[in-house]
Design a protein that fits this description.
Layout (H helix, E strand, L loop, with lengths): L1 H9 L2 E6 L22 E4 L2 E4 H4 L4 H4 L1 H17 L4 H10 L3 E6 L5 H5 L6 E3 L2 E8 L7 E3 L5 E2 L4 E2 L13 E5 L10 H19 L4 E6 L7 H10 L4 E5 L11 E4 L3 H10 L1
Parallel strand pairs: 1-4, 1-11, 4-5, 11-12, 12-13
Antiparallel strand pairs: 2-3, 6-7, 6-10, 8-9
Length: 267
């Protein structure tokens, strides 16, 4: 491990590709994977509903109160979750370097931990934003404060409405079976990342990429990491389960994010 930590410490540029595994040590559940939320069900206002049926575009049309009750519950959880020590150690590592965070997480834990919002690409959106159910309406709004009875998982607030047309809204995040996500915010972040990506590769600086807790079920982050590193840049894959590597420039570490960064802090 000391050699791996040395590679990271000597880098002038750090690119982080972070999946749901980054937040597990803070107490947050993964959405996908073999034990993700998509495999489970939840009791919503005395009805048992599979997560994947609750968190899709159609569910916000046919049962908006139930779907928004779960969103309100998640928002409350994210607001009260303290990012684990690994976030702090990572921030200390990158704040004197060039860096960018690419994450599929919709919980804004990186922003909460103090990372620069202009150096984050949320490739699946954010639960703290919402969009109109009419996909021709392309505006994105901040999700208002919501109240939920957490014991019965029942929405107390009204279902959020579009301020333009008055229709119901849905979260501005990539849901299950989602063809209707308005990706304007994410695309703007991606454009900023692409420009940074091009400039930093042309700089000749020593670059290291870290892929943290990115699963294989939806491999958006793994593809992004491969596209960035190709066969040229060192990629350190940190994952307690899926850390296998496939080329000479990749290093697999079978650890969780918190343990990995705490080990780095001890060096």
């Amino acid at each position: 491990m000391r050699d791996i930590y040395k590679i990271i410490g000597e880098a002038e540029v750090i690119v982080v590709f972070a999946g749901a595994g980054m937040g597990v040590d803070s107490g947050l559940e993964q959405y996908r994977g073999s034990d993700g939320l998509w495999t489970k069900s939840i009791n919503i206002n005395d009805n048992t509903i599979a997560y994947q049926d609750l968190m899709c575009h159609e569910s916000f049309d046919i049962m908006p109160e139930k779907s928004w009750a779960f969103i309100a519950y998640l928002i409350d959880q994210y607001k009260h979750t303290v990012p684990h020590k690994g976030f702090e150690i990572l921030l200390d590592l990158v704040k004197e370097k060039e860096y960018f965070i690419v994450t599929s997480n919709c919980d804004e834990q990186f922003q909460k931990a103090g990372f620069d919002k202009d150096k984050i690409w949320e490739c699946h959106g954010s639960i703290f934003n919402m969009q109109c159910m009419d996909i021709l309406e392309r505006n994105i709004y901040k999700t208002p404060a919501l109240e939920v009875d957490k014991e019965r998982m029942a929405l107390i607030s009204d279902v959020p409405k579009c301020t333009v047309c008055g229709l119901n809204c849905r979260p501005n995040m990539y849901l299950f079976y989602d063809w209707f996500w308005v990706s304007n915010n994410s695309v703007a972040q991606q454009i900023r990342y692409n420009k940074w990506h091009k400039d930093i590769k042309a700089s000749g600086k020593k670059i290291v990429a870290m892929e943290i807790g990115a699963g294989k079920t939806i491999d958006t982050l793994r593809k992004a990491a491969r596209n960035f590193t190709k066969e040229e840049i060192t990629l350190i894959r940190i994952n307690p389960n899926d850390c296998e590597v496939y080329s000479a420039n990749q290093i697999g570490v079978a650890m969780g994010a918190k343990s990995f960064f705490e080990g780095m802090d001890d060096e």
